[in-house]
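Researcher: Checking consistency across runs. Here is SUN domain-containing protein again:
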Amino acid sequence: MVSLDEELAKVQRQLHVLQWRARDITERAFHEALRRTELPGFTGEAVQKIINQVLEKLEESPFQMTNYASKTSGAAIIRSKTSPSWIGSGRVFWQSLPLMAYMRPPEVILEPDNHPGNCWPFPGSQGHVFIKLPVAVFPTAVTINHGIPAAAYHADSISSAPKDFAVYGLQEEDDEKGTLLGEFIFTPGQAPGQTFQLKNEHSGFIKYVRLQVLSNWGHPDYTCVYQFRLHGDPSHDGDARGKLSA
């Protein structure tokens, strides 16, 4: 007999796939329309900002959990505590085609634009990113998005995807250890966005989160992270004073 959790997970995967398709269609339409139309004063950065705003709206759904690791909500990368970006040839490949002719910064994982190649690459198979949250949050789940639907997966995109990863919650920026909130495995070929329930839900409120990628699916040069989301409940009336468990 299928459990309720399994049914919910199945529905969630289906929603992620439908959402990705809607985002992909919208983004392609925007790029095509802007390519055919000359808009004086519109820079690439301005166009991308408009696209991101539209994609953010697509994420607003009664079925969508609030993302507290969103750049538009005020989340920020602490560069001094984050792995360096992969330099290499300056390109990330998908289906043997170069997709990224310039280096994407780690901040890209806080944004909703997840078209193939728009990811943050770090060298090798192990790396980490340190994120300051906009508010103190009681963490309940995280979502990793690799940006590519199952039907479009190719050896290049699979091998550079994160595999084993861990999530740590912290209350202070100078906390070197943090509290382990869970270790998980991201599986390419399923939904582009996969949500994982945190195993240490009684850890208290956190102000920072560290994503620690422990391995990828075999790429020898780099690992690509498209989007990281943190879900939970914001603090109220000083609840953030609660300490993390050891």
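Researcher: Does this match what you'd expect to see?
Model: One thing to look at in this run: The helical segments are 4-36, 44-59, 155-159.
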